[in-house]
Amino acid sequence: GAGVSQSPRYKVAKRGQDVALRCDPISGHVSLFWYQQALGQGPEFLTYFQNEAQLDKSGLPSDRFFAERPEGSVSTLKIQRTQQEDSAVYLCASSLAGWENIQYFGAGTRLSVL
Amino acid sequence: AQRVTQPEKLLSVFKGAPVELKCNYSYSGSPELFWYVQYSRQRLQLLLRHISRESIKGFTADLNKGETSFHLKKPFAQEEDSAMYYCALSVGTDKLIFGTGTRLQVFP
Q: pLDDT of A5-27, one tens digit each?
């Protein structure tokens, strides 16, 4: 693949609905990051995986947010019982980790909660 | 607390004018800083990082630990430089802390 792939590109959800956002990182990239970008703001860190291990989830805003990467490749960010304040662009990034430490970003999923 | 501050939301210049996008950081450890750029309808991409000491597309940025700054500079702006620019600080598990971004508009 050419880069980090995210799907869907756009998601409209009714308040209270559950959503699942997918990230397909660059092949061979060990590290995977999720960020949330609200309108007019910079991306904010949500969670980080090294292979299948979730090493940092300090940025997840509530227990309604859950992320997994069961086989160390594709990752899913799940939001339960969506609220209007969850409306944002969700960005996924991957990196080789270690000294290289350059994160490559996907195009993002724009979530709108009505 | 770890923080990145970009004081300007918008910077407008004419083609050929010098550009400086400001970035200040707050971090008690040894900082690793980046500039990311987002062109219209494109994804966020790395422009440059301080440890590389490179000039990319004519842009440079010098880490000033005394002033805790990492300002992005270009001597002669081009119209194709118009984009959103984000300064970012790498901490802990390599997560990035971003500033709120500065939109650069370069007029012909």
A: 999 999 999 999 999 999 999 99
Residues of A in contact with B92 (CB under 8 A): 56
Q: What is the pLDDT of residues B35-50, one digit of tens each?
A: 999 999 999 999 999 8
Q: Which of A10, A99, A101, A104 to mutate to test the interface with B (most CBs of B within 10 A)?
A: A101
DSSP collapsed to 3 states, chain A = CCCCEEECCEEEECCCCCEEEEEECCCCCCEEEEEEECCCCCCEEEEEEECCEEEECCCCCCCCEEEECCCCCCEEEEECCCCHHHCEEEEEEEECCCCCCCCEECCCEEEEEC
Region of A101 on the Ramachandran plot (φ > 0 left; ψ -120 to 50 alpha; else beta) = left
| Among chain A residues, CA nearest to B49 | A102
